[in-house]
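Customer escalation, tier 2.

The customer says the design service returned an amino acid string that "doesn't look like it belongs to this structure." They asked us to rerun it and document both sides in this ticket. The original structure tokens are below, unchanged.
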């Protein structure tokens, strides 16, 4: 058997592979598993979206044919209308928007479309794994930007060495952030990105997949709201989390027309685009916004409060995030030395609670773990009991000083 691609071999083990294997073993042992590992919505897709799909598939047979790689005109026009209504961002649906088979695909294809081998990409650390894995698959080099709690998980672009900046071509950032749930305090942060990108001739990709999952009155902005943003970059959106459509695989990229065109061209050689009936379902989702999103957000907010209030009672000191479907928490003191992957394994094997180890999001995630709010409300009581149990067990094994 010949050796496989060097690029494939450069990829780290996929974040959920080990946890998935342990979950299978736990299920086989009849263990009561509570899965908070993957950001995979457990709530149903809103009925208006499902009804549109059923009607389209049954009564419009032309939608069963090959789609347009860039997205059908109705989808792109609806995205333009939604972006204007939601953010006040004006986009040309003909050349500033392209459909994606989910934002993950678009992020990876962007890297492949714009990078040459050896070019540097600036990526937040910790980050959504597609941000750095896509770069590796494209033959680029990742330069990690530390996202630290003392800096509110925002990048310090001023600390990047000039030698790195001269080789950099692309900047990936993501707010509201996965995995940390951090948000930008205001659009001034985006203005800094635009100035930085123009100074060093760098493309900006802002992953805004969680723009609609916000709480306590916080409203997430778009990078494209800032003057000059379309000159330097694009933004990626997804229906996966906002509308519980993770398995439907539909999103979009919008912004700079040259960058959008490059991704469209690349995609045209690799896929035929998202199925037309899925695009029309996404149209129904955007047309029903915000009414179909509000109940989803309320459920996540209730779960956030249950989990964080409970964790704070048993030893943590967590602030409630203003956005996303995640809780990002430090490892308990008794388990810090073992690392996040070993802690996640131990937690699953001994209690049945599955979480995502922080190190899976980059070296900067070590010392933390991420919990997704994707189980029924009443299960969080069980989660807290099990966390309390393993913390107590850990403390009992720590020798007295």
């Amino acid at each position: 058997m010949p050796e496989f691609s060097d690029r494939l071999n450069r990829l780290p083990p996929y974040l959920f592979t080990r946890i998935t294997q342990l979950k299978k073993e736990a299920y086989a042992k009849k263990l009561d598993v509570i899965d908070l590992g993957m950001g995979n919505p457990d709530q149903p897709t809103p009925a208006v979206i499902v009804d549109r799909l059923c009607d389209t598939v049954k009564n419009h047979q032309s939608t069963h044919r090959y789609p347009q790689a860039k997205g059908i005109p109705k989808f792109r026009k609806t995205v333009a209308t939604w972006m204007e209504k939601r953010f006040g961002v004006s986009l040309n649906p003909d050349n500033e928007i392209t459909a994606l088979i989910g934002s993950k695909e678009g992020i990876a294809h962007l890297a492949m479309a714009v990078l040459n081998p050896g070019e540097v990409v600036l990526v937040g650390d910790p980050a959504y794994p597609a941000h750095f894995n896509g770069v590796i698959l494209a033959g680029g080099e990742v330069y990690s930007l530390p996202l630290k709690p003392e800096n509110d998980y925002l990048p310090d672009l001023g600390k990047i060495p000039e030698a790195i900046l001269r080789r950099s071509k692309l900047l990936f950032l993501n707010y509201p952030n996965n995995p940390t749930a951090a948000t930008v305090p205001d659009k001034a942060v985006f203005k800094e990105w635009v100035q930085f990108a123009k100074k060093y001739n760098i493309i900006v990709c802002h992953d805004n997949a969680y723009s609609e999952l916000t709480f306590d009155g916080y409203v997430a902005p778009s990078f494209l709201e800032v003057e000059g943003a379309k000159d330097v970059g694009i933004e990626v959106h997804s229906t996966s989390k906002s509308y519980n459509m993770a398995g439907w695989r539909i999103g979009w990229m919008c912004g700079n027309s040259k960058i959008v065109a490059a991704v469209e061209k690349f995609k045209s050689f690799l896929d035929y685009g998202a199925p037309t009936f899925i695009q029309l379902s996404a149209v129904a989702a955007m047309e029903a916004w915000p009414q179909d999103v509000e109940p989803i957000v309320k459920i996540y907010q209730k779960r956030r409060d249950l989990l964080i209030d409970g964790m704070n009672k048993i030893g943590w000191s967590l602030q409630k995030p203003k956005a996303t479907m995640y809780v990002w928490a430090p490892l308990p003191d008794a388990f810090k030395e073992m690392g996040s992957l070993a802690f996640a394994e131990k937690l699953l094997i001994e209690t049945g609670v599955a979480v995502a180890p922080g190190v899976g999001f980059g070296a900067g995630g070590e010392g933390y773990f991420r919990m997704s709010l994707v189980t029924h409300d009443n299960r969080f009581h069980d989660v807290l009991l099990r966390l309390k149990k393993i913390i107590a067990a850990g403390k009992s094994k720590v020798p007295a000083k």
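Tier 2 assessment: The sequence is consistent with the input. Residues 101 and 250 are 5 Å apart (CA to CA). The radius of gyration is 21 Å. Sent an explanation to the customer and offered a walkthrough call.
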